[in-house]
Write a structure and sequence with these properties.
2 domains, signal, 2 helices, single chain, 361 residues, Secre_tail, FlgD/Vpr_Ig-like, mainly beta, 15-stranded mixed sheet, T9SS type A sorting domain-containing protein
Length: 361
């Protein structure tokens, strides 16, 4: 009997441990920058696999045809819009190329507690405008564990010249699997979340009902304990089979580096260049992005049109990579500067690049 019990205990000890993701795990991603590659061609032959425990997924050789985008997980207090979302303790900053060759950016703000993660709102910046959405929404309970399920509902209304659309989005979510996933960026222990989505749109013109449309879909998110979301896919519209074989979009983590905020960290190594600040014109703050093709002694300074030094934003040796620096419209003494045009100059080694930006009030 003793021999049998010993064998039983040994067999139990070899079982893989299930995964639990807590609020501390989510907040622990602050300081990371993730480079994602996305395929939005509309038809990708891929399957999420069956639900269950101790699953093994390998999407390392899946061909991704599409764009790359970067997500930096940051402390909301280090962003220009922190005062607009006082309840937020977790945020990410996403930037991606636009059709004009510049960068569009989005700040997404969350509240992460021991029992839940909720959306606080977002800011979207383009080359010409800044849009704010302060809609609050409960996204998921915490901690995340295998078998956990929840439902979320959101509603929205748009009015374009009397043509009104009422939208109701509902999602039933369940952590339907756990295991390991292999990507080009590495192998991760993950929980997999399946979302069954329903969108109902109702159309009115001058108060007259013109019809409605209901669309369903299924999407999956693979969430790592230490790196947040690392892989996702979405089915074709009206899909009902959980283990579908064709996706409309796929997003995969390509690499992880240090968040490049306030002149620190590195991501997206490439050619040495200074991007146009965004937004521009701006009020009250703006972001300056630049790339270093190699390690260099760097200075980033702001001057007025008379050549007077206003502020030094970065100074010292930096590693190669992609950098983001924010200017809050203040001088070296902490005083707000006046409206007008300013020059920002990047000096890296013996190379110097300058560009103009405009502060409006």
């Amino acid at each position: 009997m003793r021999f049998f019990v010993t064998l039983l205990l040994l067999s139990v000890s070899w079982l893989p441990a299930q995964i639990t993701i807590t609020n501390s795990d989510v907040l622990g991603t602050i300081g990371q920058t993730h480079l994602f590659e996305s395929d939005t061609t509309g038809s990708i032959t891929i399957s999420p696999g069956e639900a269950g425990e101790n699953k093994i997924w390998d999407f390392s050789s899946t061909v991704i045809n599409g764009e790359e985008n970067w997500i930096a997980f940051i402390d909301p207090q280090n962003t220009a819009y922190a005062d607009s979302f006082p309840g937020s303790n977790f945020s990410f900053f996403e930037w991606f190329p636009n059709e004009q060759g510049g960068l569009d950016t989005a700040y997404i703000y969350y509240s992460v507690t021991a029992s839940s993660i909720g959306l606080q709102g977002m800011i979207f910046e383009t080359d010409t405008a800044v849009y704010a959405d302060r809609s609050r929404e409960s996204l998921a309970p915490l901690p995340l564990t295998y078998g956990l399920s929840w439902k979320s509902v959101s509603k929205d209304t748009t009015d374009i010249d009397g043509f009104i659309t009422y939208q109701s989005d509902s999602s039933y979510s369940v952590v339907d699997a756990w295991g390991t996933i292999t990507l080009p960026s590495g192998t991760f222990e993950c929980l997999r979340i399946r979302n069954n989505n329903t969108n109902i749109s109702s159309f009115y013109f001058d108060g007259i009902f013109y019809g409605s449309d209901t669309t369903t879909s299924i999407d999956y998110d693979w969430v790592s304990k230490n790196n947040f979301r690392v892989f996702s896919m979405e089915s074709q519209p009206y899909e009902t089979e959980a283990n579908f074989t064709e996706a409309s979009s796929v997003e995969r983590l390509k690499s992880i580096s240090t968040t490049a905020i306030a002149g620190e960290g590195a991501a997206r190594p490439g050619a040495f260049e200074l991007d146009q600040n965004y937004p521009n014109p701006f009020n009250p703050s703006t972001t300056i992005a630049y790339r270093l093709e190699r390690n260099a002694n760097v200075s980033l300074k702001i001057y007025d049109l008379s050549g007077r030094l206003i502020r030094t934003l970065a100074q010292g040796m930096q590693q190669a990579g992609y950098k983001l620096v924010q200017w809050d419209g203040r001088d070296m003494n902490g005083q707000n500067v006046s409206s007008g045009a300013y020059i920002y100059q990047l000096q890296a080694g013996d190379v110097s690049i300058s560009k103009r930006m405009i502060l409006v009030k």
